[in-house]
Amino acid sequence: MTESKKHRKDEETRPQEGTEQPEAQSAPDENELEALQKAVAALTAQSAEYLDSLQRERASFANYKKRIDQDNHLVYDNALADVIKSFLPVMDDLERALKNKPADPDCEAWISGIALILQKLTKTLDAKGVSAMNVQPGDEFDPAIHEAVTHEENPDYANSQVIEVVQTGYKLKDRVIRPALVRVAK
């Protein structure tokens, strides 16, 4: 072998300066073991604290999303109720037109046309969750769904009973968007 090759081979097998050869690892003493166990316990507690914090934040965010969804539904329902309220006078006019229909047989086509328009409007409102309140004469007056236009003596009805429905009331789902206008017995 040449001298330079031999010198390179010695360098490869010889440990480099500043590095130490690993010695046989000695068993940790009791103090080191206790310190490691305390460190593991502290890290486990910290991990549990982080997990608890993460779970609370996730629950808080889920509640926030639910609240935002509820608020959005409420805003939508309020906007829908406002739009629907503008169509209710049209429903009233169509109902009045059918109650006061002419007796002339030549008007039958007109009467059936008005009835079809009213039916179509009613179906459209039903599709949006709007329904007319079923209030009948003799029902007990309920200020949550009725609005009294008069209180009058009537021998046919007991105190606080509805005598007549003056204007139909409407609900959007379970919410009253327009109370029924009624005459009430006293």
Describe the 3D structure:
There is one protein chain. The protein has 3 helices and 6 strands. It is α+β, with helices and mostly antiparallel strands. The strands form 2 sheets. The chain has a 3-stranded antiparallel beta sheet with strand order 1-4-5. It is elongated, with a radius of gyration of 42 Å. The mean pLDDT is 88.
Write a brief structural summary.
The protein has helices spanning 3-13, 30-99, 108-127; strands spanning 130-132, 146-152, 162-167, 170-172, 175-178, 180-185.
What is the name of the CATH class of the largest domain? Answer: Alpha Beta
Strand content: 15-25%
H/I helix tally: 3
Structural class: alpha+beta
Which key features would you list for this structure?
186 residues; alpha+beta; Hemagglutinin Ectodomain, Chain B; Nucleotide Exchange Factor Grpe, Chain A, domain 2; 2 domains; three-stranded antiparallel sheet; 3 helices; 54% helix
Topology:
Layout (H helix, E strand, L loop, with lengths): L2 H11 L16 H70 L8 H20 L2 E3 L13 E7 L9 E6 L2 E3 L2 E4 L1 E6 L1
Helix pairs in contact: 2-3
